[in-house]
Amino acid sequence: MAPGALVEETSSLSPHHTASKNEAALRDIFPDGIRTSGQHPPLYDALKPYSEFPKEISGPTVWRAEEYINNPERWVHRFTADEIEELGDTTDRFLASGTPLTGISKENFRLPKLSKLLQALRSDLLDGKGFILFKGFPAGEWSPEKTAAAYMGLGTYIGYFVSQNGRGHVLGHVKDVGDDPTQIHKTRIYRTTARQFFHADDSDIVGLLCVHRALEGGESDIVSVHNVWNTLQREHPDVAETLTKPIWYFDRKGEVSEGQEGWIRQPVFYIENGGKGRVYCKWDPYYVRSLTRFSDAGLIPALSEEQLYALQVLEDTCQRLSLHMILEVGDIQFVSNAHLLHARTAYKGEFLPTRIGASPVLFLSRRLTRTTRLPCACSKTPSASIVARDSGRRRRLGASNARQRREEARRNPSEQQPATGSVGCRVSLREELAGHTLN
User: Fold this and answer.
1) Which residue ranges are recorded for the region named Disordered (predicted)?
2) Per the count of CB atoms within 10 A, which of 5, 11, 82, 189 is most buried?
3) Residue 255 and residue 167: Cα distance in Å, rounded?
4) SS3 call for 336
């Protein structure tokens, strides 16, 4: 789900004001100004055939909801009074310095106590279970400015801020702005109250801070991609194979540079190009089902029955294996996009959590100090969308030139609370999308 804006909609800022903010961004954070996650085609000669994929994946990234439903101590951290005091004092000093939010760094946002916890968390997000829920953030007590700065300050210990939409946002609000969710070829679902099916954003990590509760719904589900893969290999190997073929077209929804196509062709599952050769997943059914304007014109093939079956099996499997959570005000959820998919139920009511990637949502890319490992198809120039040396672990399928491109993050939870485990209700993705106007 893509973020809306930094504290308020950017449309309220003049071009000059926006430029000055970019100019003021610290160059050790954004060496070339604000950077983005990018939407780039994969390196097709780097894609691996199904025969080279593992039959089963093992390790800490493979987890089952049952392991966490009744064990919140394994994935929930409640901020202590000392931690909140440190965070609040550091935030006040940062705001007093006049540095723009995009200039936050570990150097100017010191957290001696919390930093150790956050660094360990970063490792777990990238190489472990891939998610954490913080509770007790004083979202209802601090001003929007202080809340945003504190949230981004926490994020700088976990990753590198990146934008994932054409507006350059890295921190935004998840809320209903009246967009029509049936016009999925041009609407970002995070800007509506509609259900968001399981998907991954293009940043390596996404954060969601709950500042308001929805009146009803807006709950969050997450699932281990590697558990999903293992399950597909056992139950639907034909579907697993279909999902590894570069026959899937993803809508860029108009966020293209001159001369570029309005879509990207790639597989859903792919193997990391170099590094540990991990299996990654790039998926968002709304971006796959919204392309009839191109297929009707004969520019790309329409989804085959094989693909329609595969996307429904994938969604059903995710729902069945997912961990369900309800966010409360003051909760912060950080989720890895490298080996997790997430979803949000439809909601009613005016308010939803804000994200920097969520209610406010934060989109982060991991910072690499070693050779970049791009899944399957990344860029010849590792930089792409995040900043050279970073190309996030799942900066997967394409991150090539340093163009300001990004794919919106469309995910947002709304309420989450450690527990309510989900053996999810089955929602037919095929039926729900069937009636949407795509042209």
Assistant:
1) 1-20, 390-425
2) 189
3) 10
4) strand
